[in-house]
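Weekly puzzle thread! Below is a chain. First person to post its structure in C-alpha cell form gets bragging rights.
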Amino acid sequence: MQPFAYARPATLSEAISLLAEHGSGASLLAGGTDLVVALRNRTLTPKVVIDLKRVAELRPGIRGDGGAITINATTVLADVGEDQRVQARFPALVDAAATVGSIQIRNRATLTGNICHASPAADTAPPLLVYGAVVNVAGARGTRRVNLEEFFIGPGTTSLQSGELVTSIELPAAEERLGAAFARITRRRGVDLATVSVCCLVAASGRTTFAYGAAAPRPFIVRDESGVLADPATGDAAKDEVLKQLLTRASPISDVRGSRDYRAAMLLVLSRRLLHTSIERLRAA
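Winning reply:
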C-alpha cells in the first residue's frame, strides 16, 4: 500500500471542493470494502482518500414518502435489508443485499458503493434496475439525477463525471401491483462473486422486466411488454421463446467462475424460476 493523504470533510461542499482540487488523484471512502482491497493490491494509488462518513448531508438514513424510498450514500447494506419499508416495497432488493459478502461486510459496505464500484456482477444492480432506481449526483456544477440504466458504462466505469459523487439512491413508488424476485448462482455457498445473477419483476399490467448481472460488461435490463411471460396460461415453450429472445443481449464470458456456455444456460434456468416466483408474489401482493 502506497502512502496517501487522508481528508475527512464535514459537509458536502467540502467534499466536492476536495474532489475538484485533486481530480483523478482522489478516491472516496464510504464503507471501504472495495477501496481497501484496491489500495492493498495497488490497483488504486490515490494521492488522497476522502472519507465521506462524517459528511452531514450523506449520513446513513432511509427516507420514505408516498411509497418512494431514498437511501443516503453512506447507508450500509445491513440497514437496507433490515428496513421494514424496503422489505415491504422492494423485497427483491432485500434478497440481493443479503447475498453481498458476509455479515461483517454487509455491516460496512454501502449500497451506493456497490453500484459505484460498477462490477458487472454487483448483486444489488439487477433489483435496483428493475425497480427503476435513480442515482442522485452532486458536483461543482450542481446536482443531477441519473437513471440507473444510464449510470453503468462498463466494468468499473460509471457515468459520473470528474468531481462528482453520488449522494443517494432513489427508488420510485410503484404505480401498480408488482411481484419481484432475485437469485444468483455462485461457485460455493457464502462469500463469492456471482457466476450469474437475475432479477425478475412482473407488473399487474402484464409487463415483465428482467435485469442480469455477470452476463455482459455491465448489468443490463430487458423488458417484455407483450404480456406473454406474465400470463399464467401461456405454455412453457412459448415463454422460453420470449426468454431466449430477451437473452440475446447477454454476452457472458468464460473465467474461473464458469464457462460462457454454462452461464448462458444458467441465465435461462434462473429466468424461468424467477418468472414463476414473481408471478406467485404478484398474486399474493
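Puzzle host: Confirmed. Bonus trivia for everyone else. The domain at 178-284 is CATH 3.30.390.50 (Enolase-like; domain 1).
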